[in-house]
Sequence to fold (325 residues):
Amino acid sequence: MRTPYICTVLLAIFLSSASSFGQNTSPKADQQDQNPTFRKNVNVVNVFFTAKDHHGALMPNLTKDKFEILENGKPEEIKYFSAESNQPLTLGLMIDSSGSMQRMLPTEKVIAAEFLRQVITEKDLAFVISFDISVDLLQDLTSDTRLLRAGLDRARINVGGGSGGIPGLGQGPVPISHPKGTLLFDSVYVASKEVMSKQVGRKALIFLTDGEDEGSRLKLKDSIEAAQKADTICYVLLLSDPQYRTNPGDMRELAEQTGGRLISVSRPEKMSEAFDQISKELRSQYFIGYTPSNERHDGSYRKIEVKSKDGLKIQARKGYYAPTS
Fold:
């Protein structure tokens, strides 16, 4: 069952459903090496990142003194640091169910379900969204991997026509005029703004797509901005079918600006290896938190750079937006 994409309706659905699944932790702001709980009225910038050597191998167990962080080129004091991610994980699986995914989708479902079974624990939450001519919530936030697998099973190739509503949400079919193929950028915005922005701790969206957007109301830059404002990392498994085009450029930009990366998957059987790489990175993240020396709440975009003093390759988001109040 599916709900056709209508921005205001879907945002309202996400807003009401996501708010009931908030993750609560107790703040430990006075402890240097503890992850804090982030509140709206506390201006703390949090950055999750990975460190790799020149061969691409993850480097674990490094200490705070091995890193520095800069905002707009100016060094900042690291207030919080952790070499292990004890914060809960909120994970969104974003499934491209447009016509170009016809051959890939069955394999996607099986491998993604196994990935969730291995990664999601009782303290974590995950959800499933599909996107094509509409953006559809197939499974809301839950730690129950059986429900998540059932959500994945509901993904269907959709290239046009009406569709039913999401069970339990009471949304019937809504006609769409001039339906267009793949609302990828819109899906990033909805997942980031209406789900991820309500959560704390580690947050990641994993896209299984060929990267081609057709028909979104929003642009790539809007998607990146929404993900950055929600402190959400985007990973892209770029799936390629020789019959269709791919768009690695946009997908690489989305991933790198948010602290994730693009992994090209030329054959369905390579998906398992790609998911394994993401799983290892999520388990090997470092965390830095700092209070910006620039205290202005002006909503401006500010560049972030995490540096390794030992010359390691750092994978982290490129910036954030200052609060406005």
Q: What stands out?
A: The longest strand covers residues 45-52. The mean pLDDT is 84.
